[in-house]
Design brief:
Layout (H helix, E strand, L loop, with lengths): L3 H13 L7 E4 L4 H13 L7 E4 H6 L5 E2 L2 H18 L7 H20 L4 H16 L6 H10 L9 H27 L2 E2 L1 H9 L17 E4 L6 H12 L3 E4 L4 H4 L8 H10 L18 E7 L4 H4 L1 H14 L6 E5 L5 H7 L3 E3 L5 E5 L2 E3 L3 E2 L4 H16 L9 E3 H9 L7 H14 L3 E3 L9 H6 L5 H21 L5 H28 L5 H13 L2 E2 L9 E5 L10 E5 L18 H6 L5 H17 L3 E7 L12 H10 L2 E7 L12 E2 L3 H12 L4 E2 H9 L1 H9 L14 H22 L2 E2 L1 H7 L3 H14 L11 H23 L2 E17 L5 E16 L4 E7 L10 H4 L9 H17 L5 E6 L3 H4 L4 E7 L5 E7 L2 H22 L6 E2 L19
Parallel strand pairs: 1-2, 1-5, 3-4, 5-6, 7-18, 7-19, 8-16, 8-17, 11-16, 17-18, 21-24, 25-26
Antiparallel strand pairs: 9-10, 12-15, 13-14, 20-29, 22-23, 23-24, 24-25, 27-28
């Protein structure tokens, strides 16, 4: 099927022959010009003088000698004038940050007023009247309620009367502000694009001869659809003057049917305005040439891109081998799918066996790579974050930076530090556990350290500071030849945009004597950076075309793949913010939601009307941002067109990965390491034992291979650190009392409690900074941690007061004893086991207790000792095994028998006590049995100790058995918090 632009080219050559160079060809966007030039070259078959190409805005901008004002020039002008109005009303001034979102809405409204030739005085007068009527709640109709809700999102009956009055005052300012705004811009030799449109439509343009060079030819307008009133008036006038010619891409299917929203604006252009289509408007491609439409329903946003290879796989080879590229287009209805799409399409073709063929898949992407997806954005954002943090310090304060930000700076690839230097600096901070890095530790490094960590005093100079930092980074990267083309283009575009922003800010601050706030300047920079994008390399005529729906205007492809065609995306369900209510927008012909629907409908139908095949992908998952339904345009097309629709439900294969019998065999080298436990070079701790029980392969990684977590600075206190602070505090508390007298009474505990916070702070400094004497200015989360530990200490001491009197025997005592067991070969083997026991005391009843403190979610209840040793079971109780282990070590070291294990689980001890508990069958006294919860003490404790030693023997025999490899537990819950999960073959 012949493309629309080829038809235009043929007609232009037929009409103008060799005089086409006297014509100006005008599009809505730049992309179609390359296609039209290609078709003209094919027709002429010889060198020819090209016509001049414009976008509509470029052409209209030629009608004025004034420079078109950029957004920031408009904003600062509007801000200054608005505050002048407030001064006249004796009202307080708005700061820039407050005014910024309001300004965006006002500027958008002013632009629409000019584009559609609305009388601002009349519009805002009527708007004020509507507001006054709506103030009287007796007259509140559903439509008026909807109007009020649009402006006051927090509106409710009987409330916010003052807020309503403030809006009315603001509306009264609008006509004065509108005229003052345009007059002030004119004094600056500036003009908005909307005002240029209006002046041209009303014949007030200040450059009346701007079309002189095209007098011998014509203005050719190609592919237009929705026109503003200004465009309509200008186009009609130029047509009557025989200056203009129009090419509309139409289809009688939607043009002649008033119910088809896709034809709304074309009907208006042709039937109401009277613009003449140079092509036949009554042709129909939709009805006469049925097409194949494949609809893919997928589950997930990114999954939509992942099935691209399935859809266009057969065309890759043709695209790679055939020089007549460009027949297939991937059109992103949802433009956030760009990166997933680029990541999905292969750079080289593979055969059916997955081997590369050497043929490249050429791509053309003109949507552009967003700055925010680049490593450069990360660097710039970090720089801004650091500057923002610097300005939060008072002049007398020492400036410090979070370790997280400093680490991000040191590790960023564009900073250019050598690996050796980076590791040296990081190691110093980690060793010293510096959570807040002083500025004085960074600035002496000079170079880029100064660029990043030196305070910039004047807010406007922050823009310049970022620009100069990026220039320095760019220079270094170019010198080292490390930059890709796309990265260098991003650098250059970013520096250009920052230059423009700096010039604008500097001008308006100096001229208007306006005070800028640091936070506002940084937010402006961030908004500027987020809007930056540069096109990827590629030819618009070759390769697989990737574009957004807007970019597809005027273009045709044999195969169109539409990604993200969900309802709510096409068409959108919202319209931009405005202070002009819907009722008045309709009266004055300003854009409303239905206009947006009609524009989307036309882009959709026009794109597919000449295609031979259409593939549509939509996301069926429903969430807060997605309807889960395909676009209603698709459903409408299926119902009315008679095309052949094929539906595919693409489900991603989700395989639950099971733990294979992952094994590490016990080699001679491993056995040699295990033998160290027998020689005394190594000792087996309680935590090592429970690690082996829960997941044997973790024992290998930790205690045999010696794979440890890298040291790092913890900016927040982690659970194990909190436990260490508590243990240290309780050790100090009771050691001080023990030094005076090991016999503890209620009165002595109560008296000493006044020092508990001092002890907590000292242990906080010891754990976090390895310096108990450190002077720390506790703040934020640190104070929260102190409060938590203090509460835990109070729980322990409250319980201990009830247990008095008792005698402290040991605090945090380390003990090593030999342990003999029978190995798998029936031989006796002796190893050395170690326990570091939190506390050992002797109660007034003569019971020696092992006390273990737990700040986590450990449980006192257990099923059985056997289950607690079952590697693949679901009833492990590590705390039970550890405490019985400590009990055994102490008994052996001190030649005792009746030592009782106590577990102080701080979260539950007030309710459940401190003794382990298990249900057992006991005699009910009636010749039967009953289940009864037993505390782990007295005779029951002695029985369980025997079972414990029996299970310990078996587990140690397994550990030292060369024929039993280190395996992964069959129960994933037993290693859900393992640091080694990424090392396991799952």
């Amino acid at each position: 099927m012949k493309p629309f632009l080829k038809e235009v080219a043929e007609d232009l050559v037929a009409q103008f022959g060799d005089k086409l160079q006297h014509c100006a060809i005008v599009f809505n966007n730049k992309r179609p010009s390359a296609y039209l030039q290609k078709y003209l070259a094919e027709i002429y078959q010889k060198p020819f003088w090209s016509p001049t190409f414009f976008t509509i805005q470029e052409l209209f901008a030629k009608s004025t000698h004034y420079k078109i004002a950029d957004f920031y020039s408009q904003f600062f002008t509007l801000y200054r004038l608005y505050n002048q109005l407030l001064i006249k009303e004796n009202l307080g001034l708005l700061d820039m940050a407050q005014f910024f979102p309001i300004a965006k809405i006002i500027l958008s409204d002013f632009s629409q007023i000019d584009n559609d030739l609305v009388d601002a005085n009349k519009l805002y007068h009527e708007l004020e009247d509507i507001a006054l009527i709506n103030q009287q709640f007796d007259f509140l109709s559903p439509e008026q309620h909807q109007f009020l809700s649009q402006f006051w999102t927090s509106y409710s009956e009987g409330k916010h009367k003052r807020q309503q009055e403030n809006f009315i005052k603001m509306w009264r300012r609008m006509p004065v502000l509108y005229h003052a705004f345009h007059e002030d811009l004119a004094k600056q030799k500036l003009q908005t694009m909307g005002r240029a449109y209006r002046n041209l439509a009303e014949g007030k343009q200040d450059n009346p001869d701007f079309l002189q060079e095209f007098q011998e030819g014509k203005l050719i307008f190609v592919g237009f659809n929705a026109l503003t009133k200004a465009e309509s008036k200008v186009f009609k006038r130029w047509q009557e003057q025989d200056l203009a010619k129009f090419y509309f891409d139409t289809d009688a299917y939607y043009l002649n049917d008033p119910l088809q929203e896709a034809g709304l604006f074309l009907r208006k252009n042709i039937d109401q305005i009277g613009l003449i289509n140079a092509l036949d408007s009554q042709r129909t491609f939709i009805k006469e040439r049925p097409k194949q439409v494949d609809v893919y329903k997928v589950q997930g946003h990114n999954v939509q891109a992942k099935i691209l290879n399935d859809i266009v796989r057969d065309e890759y080879a043709q695209l790679a081998a055939n020089k007549n590229y460009g027949d297939t287009a991937i059109v992103l209805a949802d433009e956030s799918l760009l990166l997933p799409t680029l990541q999905t399409i292969p750079s080289r073709l593979k055969d059916t066996f997955g081997n590369e063929t050497g043929l490249e898949v050429n791509l053309n992407v003109t949507m552009g790579v967003s700055f925010i997806s680049s490593t450069l954005f990360g660097l710039a954002d970090l720089w801004l974050s650091i500057q923002k943090s610097i300005h939060q310090f008072k002049p007398e304060d020492e400036i410090t930076f979070s370790f997280k930000n400093v680490e991000a700076f040191l590790s960023h690839p564009l900073v250019g530090l050598s690996e050796k230097m980076r590791e040296k600096i990081l190691k110093a901070f980690v060793t010293e556990q510096i959570v807040q890095v002083p500025q004085s530790r960074l600035l002496p490094q000079k170079g880029i350290f100064v660029d990043f960590f030196q305070k910039i005093d004047k807010p406007v100079e922050i823009v310049k500071g970022l620009k100069e930092t990026l220039e320095a980074v760019l220079k270094r990267q170019l010198y080292g030849k490390h930059l890709k083309k796309i990265d260098s283009e991003l650098f250059i575009k970013t520096i250009q945009e920052l230059n423009r922003l700096y010039d604008t800010l500097f001008k308006h601050v100096n001229e208007g004597k306006q005070i800028l706030e640091v936070g506002f300047v940084i937010s402006l920079i961030q908004k500027t950076l987020q809007s930056i994008a540069v096109p990827l390399s590629g030819s618009p005529l070759n390769g697989l075309q990737v574009m957004g729906l807007l970019e597809s205007r005027n273009l045709n492809f044999k195969h169109v793949v539409l990604l993200g065609l969900n309802d709510g995306i096409v068409p959108k369900t919202t319209i931009g913010n405005s202070f002009i209510p819907d009722s008045l927008r309709r009266v004055y012909g300003l854009p409303v939601l239905e206009n947006q629907d009609a524009i989307s409908a036309y882009m959709f139908y026009r794109l597919i009307q000449r295609a031979e095949k259409v593939s549509v992908v939509y996301n069926s998952l429903t969430d807060e941002s997605n309807s889960g339904e395909p676009s209603r345009f698709l459903k409408q097309l299926e119902y009315e067109s008679g095309w052949d629709f094929n539906y595919f439900h693409q489900e991603m294969n989700v395989e639950v990965e099971k733990s294979e019998a992952t094994e590490i065999e016990k080699t001679d080298e491993i056995i040699k390491v295990l033998n160290d436990f027998s020689t005394g070079r190594r000792t087996l701790s309680a935590s090592a034992l429970t690690t082996y029980i829960a997941n044997p392969i973790d024992f290998f990684f930790n205690y045999i291979a010696g794979i440890k977590e890298p040291e790092e600075v913890h900016e927040v206190v982690e659970a194990n650190d909190l436990g260490s602070i508590l243990h240290g505090t309780m050790e100090d508390f009771y050691n001080i009392l023990k030094f005076e007298n090991p016999n503890i009474t209620r009165e002595r505990i109560a008296e000493k409690r006044k020092d508990i916070l001092t002890l907590i702070k000292a242990n906080f400094n010891k754990v976090m900074y390895d310096n108990a004497e450190r002077q720390t200015n506790f703040s934020g989360m640190q104070l929260v941690v102190l409060a938590i530990v203090e509460e835990y200490c109070n729980i322990i001491l409250n319980y201990d007061e009830k247990c008095t009197p008792f005698t402290i025997i040991h605090m945090e005592e380390a003990m090593v004893v030999p342990y003999t067991f029978t190995d798998a070969n029936g031989n006796e083997r002796t190893i050395h086991i170690k326990g570091i026991i939190d506390r050992v005391d002797l109660t007034g009843d003569g019971i020696t207790r092992i006390v273990d403190y737990k700040t986590g979610s450990d449980k006192l209840s257990y099923h059985s000792i056997e289950e607690s040793f079952n590697t693949h079971g679901k009833s492990l109780n590590k705390a039970l095994v550890q405490t019985l282990f400590y009990t055994y070590v102490f008994e052996q070291a001190k030649n005792l028998k009746f030592v009782e294990p106590n577990l102080y689980v701080l979260k539950i001890m007030n309710k459940e006590g401190v003794l382990f508990q298990s249900y057992r069958k006991v005699d009910d006294g009636k010749g039967g049995t009953k289940r009864m919860k037993l505390n782990l003490s007295n005779e029951f404790l002695m029985e369980e100790k025997e079972i414990f030693l029996n299970e310990l023997n078996k587990k140690l025999a397994e550990l030292f058995d060369k024929n039993v490899p280190f395996r992964v537990s069959e129960n994933p819950l037993n290693y859900q918090y393992s640091r080694y999960t990424t090392l396991m073959v799952r």
